[in-house]
Amino acid sequence: MIKVAAAVIKYEDKVLLMRRAPGQKYAGMWEFPGIKVQENERASAALRRELDEELYIKANIGKLITSVVDNEYETFAYNVEYVDGLITLHVHDDMQWVPLTDALKYNLLPSNRKIIMHMTNTKESVKKPETLDSALEQIIDKPVLDSSTNKYVVNIKNGFFGTSRSFSSQHAAISFYVDTVRYIINTLQNRRLTNTKEK
User: Fold this and answer.
1) Given this model, what pLDDT does residue 129 score?
2) Which CATH superfamily is domain 2-120 in?
3) Fewest CB within 10 angstroms: 19, 70, 121, 178, which?
4) Is residue 162 pLDDT above 60, yes or no?
5) pLDDT at 114 over 80
6) Comparing C-alpha atoms, which of 30, 23, 10, 29 is closest to residue 79?
7) pLDDT at 97 over 90
8) Contact 124, 38 (CB under 8 A)
9) Sheet of strand 151-154, all strands in order from the earlier edge strand to the far edge
10) How many angstroms separate the Cα of 101 from the Cα of each of 10, 108, 118, 122, 140?
């Protein structure tokens, strides 16, 4: 696994992001400045080499923030306090000082995204896959007894039949619910078939 040291360079309330230049691997993506760690080299020492020899800046390397694994890379992210010097771009064509809370809006390398998520305590939102049950829950509720009227109510949403239906017996409510669910399933399946054909 390739080890990489990344510098989370802070200045006031912002961090430094750099965009990889055309012709470079992952061109157009943003990242923290970093360097590949050589064999038998400490990550912090590699980072010191990057700051001195590549970026030409003076900075104080602080504690390790976190380490993340993405594909064949293991990235070690360090807190770095910018002190002085004019930053020079080599494999990057742009740089921005960005509030940490805005950093996730950038097209980041996956490992750098994980680092920022760790720093901001953010979790990626994952869309729950739709199942037949979850689709039905959005359209119809199971029969419930309304104690105020002593009737069984089936609540229908999304305009299939418009509103709620009330029944004097539980059997009638369940029969209506089952028939309506069958109708909804057929309708949903027909819609999916139509959408598939259109694509």
Assistant:
1) 53
2) Nucleoside Triphosphate Pyrophosphohydrolase (3.90.79.10)
3) 121
4) no
5) yes
6) 10
7) yes
8) no
9) 144-146, 151-154, 165-167
10) 13, 14, 12, 10, 40
